[in-house]
Every structure is written in C-alpha cells, then in structure tokens.
C-alpha cells in the first residue's frame, strides 16, 4: 500500500480520530468461537477465533488488544473481519481478567506478559497454521514487539511477521505524556476501568490487595507504583516501565515488522518514534502518518475498511510474497 493516509478535514485531529474510532464505528459482526485455555500457573485465557471459511486457512493473525480492551473492541473486530475477507483466519485473545470474568490468580496483565502471548502463539501453531502474523494495538503493540525482540532467534518458524499500531514503546515517556492536562479525559477513563479490576481482585484476595485510597491516584505512575509493580514483582513504576518497554529490544527483532505511530497521537511522547533505530534495523519498518490519532486511522469508504486494516493486509501479502514492504507515507 503506497498511498499516504489522508483523512477528511474534520478527522485531521488526533483527539477526534481517537474518540471517533472508539465510539462511532459500527461494530463488525464476527461469528466468534470462544475457547478457554489453561496457563501453567492454574489460570486461564479466553480466546476468540474467527475463521474465514468452513475449513481452516494456512494463515493466521493473532490480535492483541490495548489497555482495558478486549476482543470485541472495534479495532479488533474490524481487523479480524478485514483479514477474514482476505482468506486469513484470526485468533483474538483476552488478557487475564479482560474477557468479562476475573482470572483466578492475583497477577493481572501488563505491558510485559510475553509468557501469555507465547502460550497463545504456541496454541495457534498447535492448530496447524503455517504462517502466523502478530498484530498489536497500543499496549498490545508494545507487548508484541517486546515478545519478538526478547525471543529473538528462538521464535517459532511459523511466525512470519508483525504489525503494531499506536505503540507506547517507551512506557515512561508515554506515561508522562498521557498524564498531561490535555489528556485528562483519557486518564480518568483508564483509572475508572482499572479500579473495577482492582475491586474484583480485592474480592478474591482481600489480604493481598485493596482499593483504600484509590481516589488519590491521578496517573499511571501512581497506579503502577501501587498495583502493577508490587503484584508482578517490579520494584516500582520506573522499574516496570524500563523492563517492559519494547524500545530497547527493537533492534533485536529478526523478522519483518511494521510499526505505525501517527504524529498526532495524543498518548505518545517523542521517544515513541524510534526513527534512528528503524533506519539501522533492516526488519523494522516505521511509518509515521501525519494523522491517525491513537488507534484511529479512520477511513470512510464503501468497504468500511480502515486505513490500518488496508495497510496490514498489504503488509501481510507482500511479506508472504517475499516482496518489498509498503513504502513509507510522507
């Protein structure tokens, strides 16, 4: 896909893009087939399959959602539906506690749960797929690229490539950016949703976690210091961010990978646009559209196909054909 992303005038604003894509897109109807798989620590992950036909394809996309998302988010179902039409099956997975039912263990999900992603990947391989592409959005994009970088040459041969959108690849920078006053509406929404998760954990583990003083938490640093870090074995928020940011691992990626971060994304700091790393890393193709917001990339067309979906389809086709990657829009 060689054309740049140029939305209508009224969508050339990062906040409008982000909100419109989240709230106004009609939901793509998929015939999901739910499957629950067990984890090694006596927990579970809920997976949603969407097949392109009666018989399984040779090709599969594995979709990882964003913070406080799930498999029925519009950006997940839209991407799955688009690739289903192109003859590719999809496997969307809900992180622990994100499928509508609290998970069993104290641990939740975060930017670095590559063990859970690996379990899902292995499950896809076990189903017989020969060509697997990983697609991640926001937190899921960081998780996907971290998985690829840290696994390196140990990746299964069936994994052919990856696409990541709106990636907070420097978690510290992104946390600072979203805590700014201009993003207060998003911050409040995230903290409200996360509070629901904390209260569910409190019901299960009242001696290990509680929401006392939660109302004083105003940003991700305070939330991660209080909950994410201690629950998952990190010293503090900074330690968590440093160990789970994909940025230091991008140059270790060994297969074709496309990162798409719009320049008007309200959540991303300047450090989330790794231009120099992309120049020096053959397999990392960085695209920085002028517009797109955070997981937006709205396109108003007869096919109801967003630009993010079209360019992903192009990337997968060109990678499978061992052809050139899509040209970077100006």
From TrEMBL:
GO MF entry, a single one: short-chain carboxylesterase activity
SUPFAM superfamilies from the UniProt entry: alpha/beta-Hydrolases
InterPro entries: AB_hydrolase_4_sf, AB_hydrolase_fold, ABHD4, Hydrolase_4
Residue ranges occupied by any Serine aminopeptidase S33 domain in the UniProt entry: 57-200
Catalytic residues identified in the record: 138 (charge relay system), 265 (charge relay system), 294 (charge relay system)
Pfam families: Hydrolase_4 (PF12146)
Family indicated by similarity: Belongs to the AB hydrolase superfamily. AB hydrolase 4 family.
Protein known as: Serine aminopeptidase S33 domain-containing protein
Organism: Desulfotalea psychrophila (strain LSv54 / DSM 12343)
């Amino acid at each position: 896909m060689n054309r740049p992303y140029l939305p209508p005038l009224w969508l050339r604003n990062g906040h409008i893009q982000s909100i419109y894509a989240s709230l106004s897109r009609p939901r793509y109807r998929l015939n999901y087939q739910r499957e629950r798989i067990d984890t090694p620590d006596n927990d579970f992950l809920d997976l949603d399959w969407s097949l392109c036909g009666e018989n399984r394809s040779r090709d599969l996309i594995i979709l990882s959602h964003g913070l406080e998302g799930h498999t029925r988010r519009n950006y997940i179902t839209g991407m799955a539906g688009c690739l289903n039409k192109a003859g590719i099956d999809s496997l969307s997975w809900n992180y622990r506690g994100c499928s509508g039912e609290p998970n069993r263990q104290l641990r939740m999900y975060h930017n670095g749960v590559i063990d859970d992603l690996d379990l899902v990947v292995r499950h896809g391989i076990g189903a017989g797929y020969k060509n697997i592409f990983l697609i991640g959005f926001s937190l899921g994009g960081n998780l996907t690229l971290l998985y690829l970088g840290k696994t390196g040459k140990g990746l299964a041969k069936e994994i052919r490539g990856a696409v990541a959108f709106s990636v907070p690849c420097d978690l510290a920078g992104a946390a600072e950016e979203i805590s700014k006053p201009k993003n207060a509406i998003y911050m409040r929404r995230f903290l409200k949703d996360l509070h629901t998760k904390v209260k569910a954990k409190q019901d299960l583990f009242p001696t290990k976690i509680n929401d006392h003083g939660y109302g004083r938490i105003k940003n991700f640093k305070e939330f991660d210091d209080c909950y994410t870090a201690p629950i998952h074995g990190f010293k503090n928020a900074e330690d968590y961010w440093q160990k789970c940011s994909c940025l230091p691992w991008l140059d270790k990626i060994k297969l074709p990978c496309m990162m798409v971060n719009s320049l008007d994304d309200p959540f991303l700091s300047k450090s989330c646009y790794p231009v120099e790393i992309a120049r020096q890393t053959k397999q990392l193709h960085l695209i920085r559209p002028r517009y797109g917001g955070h997981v937006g990339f709205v396109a108003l067309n007869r096919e109801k196909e967003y630009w993010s979906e079209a360019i992903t389809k192009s990337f997968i086709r060109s990678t499978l054909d061992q052809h050139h990657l899509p040209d970077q829009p100006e």
